[in-house]
Amino acid sequence: MDVLTKYPYWTLILLSVAAGIVLVRLYGWISSQEKLARVKREIFANLLEAVIYRHNVALSLRAQARMLGGGAKYFTLAAPPLVILLVPCIFLLGQMNSLVGYDPADPGKPLTVSLNVKDGEADIFNAVLKVQDAEVSPPLRIPSEQRVMWRVVPEDPGAHPMRLLLPDVDAALAASLEVGTRTQGFVNYSSTWWLYRLLYPSSIDLPEAVSELEISYSEAEYSLLGMRMHWVVVFALVSLLAGLIAGKAMHIEL
Amino acid sequence: MVRPVTRRRFLAYSLGTVGAAAVPRPLIASSPHIRSGKFRDKVVVLGFDGMDPMLVTRMMDNGELPNFQRLAARGGFQRLRTTMPPQSPVAWSSFITGAEPGGHGIYDFIHRDAASFMPYLSTSRSISGSRSIEIGDWVIPLESGRVDLMRRGTPFWDALVERDIPVTVYALPANFPIEHRSDSLRALSGMGTPDLLGGYGRYTLFTERPLPEQKRSGGRVELVRVTNHVAKGELQGPKSPFERKPQPISIPVTMIRDPRERVIKIDIGGQVALLKEGEWSEWIPVSFDFIPLLASMSGAVRCFVKQVHPFLSVYISPVQIDPMDPAMPICNPIDYSQELAENIGRFYTQGLPADTKALSEGVLDSYEFLRQGKIVFAENLAAFDYEFARFKEGCFVFYFSSTDQMSHMLMRCMDPKHPLYEPDAVQEVKDAIRFFYRGMDEVVGRVLDRVDSTTTVLVLSDHGFAPFTREINLSTWLVQEGFTAVTDQSRMHEMDFYQLVDWQNTSAYALGINGIYLNLKGREKRGTLPESEAQRVKSEIIRKLHDLKDPLTGKRVVMHAYDSSDLYSGPFASLAPDIQVGYASGYRVSDESILGGFPAGIVRDRKNPWASDHCMDPRVVPGILFSNRTWKTADPAIWDLAPTILREFGISAPRSMTGQPLRA
After folding, report:
1. Among all residues of chain A, which has the CA nearest to that of B281?
2. Pairwise CA distance, residues B498 & B396, whole Å
3. Which InterPro entries does this one have (chain B) (predicted)?
4. Is B101 helix (H, G, I), strand (E, B) or coil?
5. What is the mean pLDDT of residues B230-239?
């Protein structure tokens, strides 16, 4: 796991290829391969008919209408398995986002740490954040949003553990500020919201009084074919390519 | 979020890839530079704008500039003759082209179009696309506008890149827009590069408490109301080219301060910075959408929190052209600024980065201005280190603006005799100029530590500096002497830009910092002076200028007024003002006079913190020339350096260069 965290680019490529192959394999299992193959053959046959009899308008139009019908049938066959595959995809993308979606901070560069405090749980005016070996600004408190923010400037590379002091609470946050390099505990966001916990089951626990933690790492960009792009675009392109190749190799109708 | 790939960047990648695949290997091998490895010689040029020889000498004598001393000991230190007028765009154009102003056509920061009488910034002109379709309030341009470089003559690097000699030219003045040359040239534009709004930089100040009433040309002061510690404002961007009556595109700015602590969160179009009072932010990228998702312009700003409590006051820098996605041609190759920004972070792209107007107009104080100046210098140093580390051969030219801009505003703070000395300023402000000079010494040291004996090192400034304590209202003087006529002298002091001028009876007018133009019939839009009278009027003005005395001191205000026909020759000599005024040390034209204002009085005290200058007679403000070579030329001029650089590479100067190579 640590190796995966340290080399995000190759992690992204590896996971994209693996995801492409696995998703195609799953698609092969949960879709009606025979029906798909038949519909595709019909569409192709109608396409040929439309081309061959292009001088016969009536025949060509009928073939095109059947192609349209075939397309609709293909969609009804392909959509349900795709919707099913969306569920693991969302989980996968969520996990990948925390793994490869953000860059660690640069030494000496400021980050914002933002906490939302639960209603009535704590007096945000006395909230204090301590970060090991980093300069922390006084808090910026927004009572109307139950939010406290700090600007943190970590000087040295490495993990900088954080501690939060609220009235009657002294909680060591499970998160550290990651500077210069990633470690396994790279966290840019965490929330107590049930849907978030469902999507990110392995995300860190927050102290009782805190509902949300956000650290403003910058979004990571990756280079593919000489162009820099968001990791989701890289994922989509690479997994699509891997899926197409895998589909051919495993004789799966897509 | 997918990072937008600009059309230019996409084309560059595509063409680069296809080109690399398509070029046959023998062709690559036949490039003379790659084939023979012949050009092993190197030339390093450091340009320190406005570095003054007298102060340098004094600091060297005190042992404060050890690397300058080291360089002088290896070769020599001379005063460098500068152009008339000794203004940066003029002098650096002469450095670039190896010609006096008649050879490059730049005579001032401001020129005027004789036919239309429209003034413009001398080194570049924007030309809008002429063809468009109008649909209601919308305009669809069918042709893109362009920016033209007005500096004529041939830059010395043309001869180098033609021979595949690598050249780096960093931030030289009078070099915007950057014209695409060979990929052997790495160039970033300097002084003359506008902000994203197209001007020389407009700040924004959000303030809860009104500032004293003052005419402000350098930016916008927006009064904000703070409710529950939240204030909202707008950052103005460029005008949309898609509207018939273009309005500036704005993005929202939200400022939330802590109820007790001196901390504030600034949100500009979704980009957030959290700052303490007295802090500068990092660069904040901003995007101005003309048509959402279809057409936008990228910029970047820095914020400075002047005060959080009791009254909120936040300064936003002029919107810079974003080097990550430049909206104008600021570099060559086209992705050079992006490469730099990716390696050293975003940086000021505006040609005159330090916000002198903000200090002049009371928006920043001297200390705050100095802090900004140090940020600019740190960015320049980072760029220098990056570029110099990759410099292996060819010609390396690197320019620093800090010595000039800081001297204009803060040199007064190092001289207790200066009328605008600030006795209560912190020591850091009083030591500011020494700080920057020592910083340049450090740069010289980094160069000397790395260069070998085959490398020629030239360190130059385009002019020196002198106090600017008394200002002359040249335009008002011309009225007083009867050369400029006005319809109502009682109201002329309130007017700008030649309002109330009676052109029928005007024989000469002042425009720019040093220039006087005759109102010549057939040349000027409303010219009335016959050619036959021109010489007489010119001589009379020059004679009277020589007689002009400061009523306070009895000293001459003008050291020498030059007849341009004696001063300039060359293909662009006709563009020059008819008379160039060489002010005596301590004097310069007033700001209002530059663009046709007629302030009261002729000579008066300078009140603006911009209280040191160089737009005087060139003999008052020579530049510096240090080199690790000993030059026998006794009185080198700035236009001699281009042919000298070419000679170091064994190349003869083109005929357009009138300068002579320095004798070794």
Report:
1. A110
2. 44
3. Alkaline_phosphatase_core_sf, Phosphodiest/P_Trfase, TAT_signal
4. helix
5. 96
pLDDT at B589 over 80: yes
Mean predicted confidence (pLDDT) in B255-259: 96
Start-end of CATH 2.60.40 domains in chain A = 111-218
Q: Which domains does chain B have, with CATH numbers?
A: 195-326 (no CATH), 468-613 (3.30.1360)
| Identity of the residue in B13, B256, B262 whose CB atom sits nearest the CB atom of A227 | B13
CB within 8 Å of A192: residues ≥ 6 apart: A118, A206, A210, A211, A212
Nearest-Cα distance to chain A for B600, in Å, is 51
A236 shares contact with chain B (CB less than 8 Å): no
Burial letters A141-168, b for 16+ CB under 10 A, else e: bbeeebbbbbbbbbeeebbbebebebee
* Distance of alpha carbon A245 from alpha carbon B413, whole angstroms: 72
User: Which residues, in sequence order, are CB contacts of B586 under 8 Å at separation 6+?
Assistant: B466, B467, B468, B469, B470
Between A137, A142, A233, which is nearest B256 by CB? Answer: A142
B282 near A CB under 8 A: yes
**Residue position matching structure tokens 């408190």:** A141
| A110 touching B (Cβ < 8 Å) | yes
Minimum-distance CB partner of A138 among B258, B265, B282: B258
CATH number of A111-218: 2.60.40
Structure-block tokens of residue B178:
């950057």
Sheet holding B320-321, edge to edge: B284-291, B295-301, B320-321
What is the tens place of the pLDDT at every residue in B458-516? 999 999 999 999 999 999 999 999 999 999 999 999 888 899 999 999 999 999 999 99
- Mutation for testing the B interface, residue in A112, A115, A125, A137 having most B CBs under 10 Å: A137
CA distance B274 to chain A (A): 6
Q: Does residue A254 sit at the B interface (CB-CB below 8 Å)?
A: no
Q: Measured between beta carbons, which residues in chain B are less than 8 angstroms from residue A235?
A: none
Whether residue B247 has pLDDT greater than 60: yes
**In chain B, which residues have their Cβ closer than 8 Å to the Cβ of A144?**
228
What are residue B429's phi and psi, to 5 degrees?
A: -70, -40
- DSSP-derived pairing of the beta strands B124-127 and A147-154: unpaired
**pLDDT for the residue numbered B13:** 44
